[in-house]
Amino acid sequence: MSRSAEAVRRVIKAYDVRGLVGEEIDDEFVSEVGAAFARLIRGKATKVVIGHDMRASSPALSAAFGEGVMSQGLDVVAIGLASTDQLYFASGMLDCPGAMFTASHNPAAYNGIKLCRAGAKPVGKDTGLTTISEDVIAGVPAYDGPRGSRTERDVLADYGDFLRTLVDIGGVRPLKVAVDAGNGMAGHTTPAVLGVIPSITVEPLFFELDGTFPNHEANPLDPANLVDLQSFVLETGADIGLAFDGDADRCFVVDEKGQAVSPSAVTALVAARELSREIGATVIHNLITSRAVPELVAERGGTPVRSRVGHSYIKGLMAETGAIFGGEHSAHYYFRDFWGADSGMLAALHVLAALGEQDRPLSDMMADYQRYESSGEINFTVTDAPAIVDDVLSAFGSRVHAIDHLDGVTVDLGDGSWFNLRMSNTEPLLRLNVEARTLEDVQALVDEIGTHIPSETASETKELT
């Protein structure tokens, strides 16, 4: 496969490596990326831990990456099938850099690599990916030292044991837990983490590892992909439903009535639990989580810190502030005790512990953390997003109570209502999030803003927040 500089930069993105297998990435390419990654970390590390998801292309690609690493004199520890947070665990436990082969919730034809330094510290555009990209474009220089070696290590049980040390789950009442793995890596990790807890009965849905995703996309952010779990919860009489994405680093929650629970409410719940053991700690939330999150954090004696959307910003602030916890609208949850990395399974353990420590059903318990109504994230495909944003701001005029530009534009209307408009960095999309005190107020704002988006250029999709 011949590759231009443009083609390499298109695949080595701001936060990870991702592309179409056979067209944009192949064994030769990922071997070069592995060699470039080894050059980047040589002198600071002697080995790299590598894991992969269930996609058909993942074993061969991860092996080719390992060949590139070893060609540069570093050793490889191969952990085989893993969730992304299992790879982060291995990076933290072994104190070495890591590479996870996954394309998360993308279709089967895609694959990619999530890279981290020792202790699960992320590698992004400004922390190594640009250097890797330029090395691959120029051609990675050969290494004249001894070749590295490869060992295999199974860390799944260690991963499960470690997570259970972070959440006291021993005294919870019996719970029936429906889990939709979406044919992704939660089918591999759930039995090792939840299946060994005596008080928990796991009701499995789509646990067969299948990178073609035959039942639905492994992207629970889209409400359409929660429908099977919602029905399954009602069918099995489960106390709670959990849905994971393809690489199982995100977790979505469904209550006993089959209703989706907002990730903002989950963020508030986990924040309250973490603050109960460290009063005054910092909690990170991104700017489109519910305003209930910073309110509840402050009420519990914590310090809320607002972040731009995106894991690199959250993880950076986690390290900078020493925050105990961070949460995003997309159901990424970050824990100081997990090397500042995100783990959907650890968030799930917190929700299960909270539910099992009291007698109320999940719907009642989560009502304590749900103060506002939201639109979810609505994506509009547009041709001139900046002009539309300007038009919206002009139309609201004197009704604007406060405004900021941390990530796109966030408009506070001063009555408990706010909205955020931000442009995608990679697609011609304008993303809208609205929050208000009632669903009627939310819909009214969505409708009003929608009148400023030209119908001939706009198409709308909605994702759960």
Automatic annotation (TrEMBL):
Pfam families: PGM_PMM_I, PGM_PMM_II, PGM_PMM_III, PGM_PMM_IV
Record-listed E.C. numbers: 5.4.2.8
Cofactor: Mg(2+)
Domain Alpha-D-phosphohexomutase alpha/beta/alpha: 10-130, 158-258, 268-372
Enzyme's top EC category: isomerase
UniProt entry keywords in alphabetical sequence: Isomerase, Magnesium, Metal-binding, Phosphoprotein
SUPFAM superfamilies, per database record: Phosphoglucomutase, C-terminal domain, Phosphoglucomutase, first 3 domains
GO molecular function: metal ion binding; phosphomannomutase activity
InterPro entries registered for this protein in UniProt: A-D-PHexomutase_a/b/a-I, A-D-PHexomutase_a/b/a-I/II/III, A-D-PHexomutase_a/b/a-II, A-D-PHexomutase_a/b/a-III, A-D-PHexomutase_C, A-D-PHexomutase_C_sf, Alpha-D-phosphohexomutase_SF
GO annotation terms (biological process): carbohydrate metabolic process
Ranges for domain Alpha-D-phosphohexomutase C-terminal: 377-449
Family: Belongs to the phosphohexose mutase family.
Protein name from the UniProt record: Phosphomannomutase
The organism of origin for this protein: Mycolicibacterium chubuense (strain NBB4)
Taxonomic lineage of the native organism: Bacteria, Bacillati, Actinomycetota, Actinomycetes, Mycobacteriales
